[in-house]
Amino acid sequence: MLIAAVIATALIISGTLVYTQFFSRRRLLVSTTTSLWESDLLKKVESVFEAKYPIDLQFIAAGSGVAIEQGRNGDVDCVLVHAPSMELTFLQQGFGTSRKIIAYNFFTIVGPSNDPALVNGQNVTEALKRITEYGRNQTGKVWVSRADNSGTHTKEQSLWKLAGFNYTLISAEQWYANAPGGMGETLLKAEQFSAYTLSDIGTYLKFHEKDERITLDSFMAEKYELLNVYSVMAVNRTRHKHVNFNDTVTFIKFLTSDEGQQLIEKFGEEDYGTSGRLFRAAVSYLTANSTEQIAQWIRKYAFLGDPPTECPPEYRDTECPELYT
Amino acid sequence: MPRALYIAKANLVLESSLNEIIEGIVKAFQLIFTGDPRVLEVVLRSLFVSGLATLIAALWGLPIAMALAMKKFRGRFLLKGIFNTLLGIPTVALGLVLFLFLSRSGPVGFLSMLYTPSGMIIGEALLITPIIISLATSALEAVDPEMMKQATTLGATDSQASATILKEALGGVVLAGVSSFNRAIAELGVAQMVGGNIEGRTEVLTTAIAAETAKGNIALSIALAIILLALVFIITMTVNVIQRRRK
């Protein structure tokens, strides 16, 4: 009996090995920030991409911090994230290559529609100050934080700093809820507490307009401080020999192609109309040396290295220079 | 606001929130009875993973249980104590350990079993092994010890005598298997951390319910939860009925 057990276990393990060696070449595992996943954009991308290529695209939804960690461990082939500072570290440590900026939108502060802290129409630093002031006079939770080392959480930390607060101290105050979870979950928590939170506009619109799961209002205008830029990176194939690099390049090329960019730009139009597009295509602004304000903003915010580029030359994989022409 | 109006408004709020739940349940049944391919896939994968895990756990657990119940050796009680303690092992703790081991940068990362159904099967099997061992040991110990002696005096070999005991304790042993299966199919920690809830690959009932609720797909969550409850209920009931018949 013990022998049978050993055989069964060995069979399963060897079966997996054989399977991954011989049948899984065309499987591409992508770790992605929750906002791209929960808005269903990637489902759309997946169906179009898989119809075109014989590649099985699979996603793990995690915060940007976790996604980069999975890339660092070599557990995924490719990451989709939105945290330029973390992305730079990932490249510098030699775990990521071939970064391409694919999309952008804006963050916004959302909160109960009666806006008790009076943040509507304020700039983001003033809004955070008002929320703090209001929170300190309340007994309940007034601000819900992702608190999960995600791209949104990274942004939140930088915004508190921008507003002149010490993040460690502010996040320990009683009105501040540290509630690790995805973006959708965090919006639902904020709804439940009638609290404010920082959200990307994409997830907010999905939950507010389409699903009607939250009544929170969005209070911020599209400003530079609230810019949110999504990029894709391959896991370094010299660091992790087993990763599916070739298909990752195909995927990156698809995302940055006209077709992929149209998909991103048009996503959600039927549900929200053109005024409420969830994500916006970024590639045209970067290649055409556009002088538009948004192009300057993206360069200033999400370009890395010196001179700033979307991927410093030393982190580009030598086999696919065509990504950058 | 006049009181009557206030009550009317409160009723409206209550009604609309109840409506959401009722709507969810209606949609859930539609998903179940129209044979929605996604629902079907998740259910089948859940059954497959937990079923295979139970089989493996039984294969290596039962010999250990028989040794614990029938052989007298030093450290027997310590070993039994350990397995009894492991009965309540937090699934997230085991999930974390398995994650660290199976990750590419972990000791057995070269197997590439993280985020695969095979990894989940091994993980669930490890999780439920203590359950199988503890419950099966109790069932085997409950058999009259005289029976073993009688069998051997009647000329049975050691393994024949063990088989007699196993047959006698079959009800309890099957119950151990069913309890293990139920634990495996209903737990979230290992499935989430080892499987990663990848649609089309490692998504099972529990991880899908958690993720879809967070995404706001309440109808799908309700459908999956109803199925999960029904599965556990039906399997347990069937086993109970069969056991009754046998007696």
Write structural notes for this entry.
The complex is a heterodimer of chains A (325) and B (247). Chain A is an alpha/beta fold and 325 residues long. Chain A has 15 helices and ten strands. Chain A is 45% helix and 17% strand. In chain A, strands 1, 2, 3, 4, 5, 6, 7, 8, 9 and 10 form a ten-stranded mixed beta sheet that branches. The N and C termini of chain A lie far apart (62 Å). Chain B has 247 residues and is mainly α. Chain B folds into two domains: 34 residues; 208 residues, MetI-like fold (Orthogonal Bundle), CATH 1.10.3720.10. In chain B, helix 1 packs across helix 11 and helix 3 packs across helix 5. The termini of chain B are far apart. At the A-B interface, helix 1, strand 2 and helix 9 of A face helix 2, helix 5 and helix 10 of B.
Outline:
The complex is a heterodimer of chains A (about 325) and B (about 250). By secondary structure, chain A is of the alpha/beta class.
Helix and strand string of chain B, N-terminal first? Answer: HHHHHHHHHHH
Radius of gyration of chain A: 21 Å
Largest sheet of chain A: 10 strands, mixed
**Mean pLDDT metric of chain B:** 88
What structural category do the secondary elements of chain B indicate? Answer: mainly alpha
Look at the structure and give the CATH class of the largest domain in chain B.
Mainly Alpha
Question: What portion of residues of chain A belong to β-strands?
Answer: 15-25%
Report the CATH topology name of the largest domain in chain A.
Answer: D-Maltodextrin-Binding Protein, domain 2
| DSSP helix fraction of chain A | 40-55%
Number of domains of chain A: 2
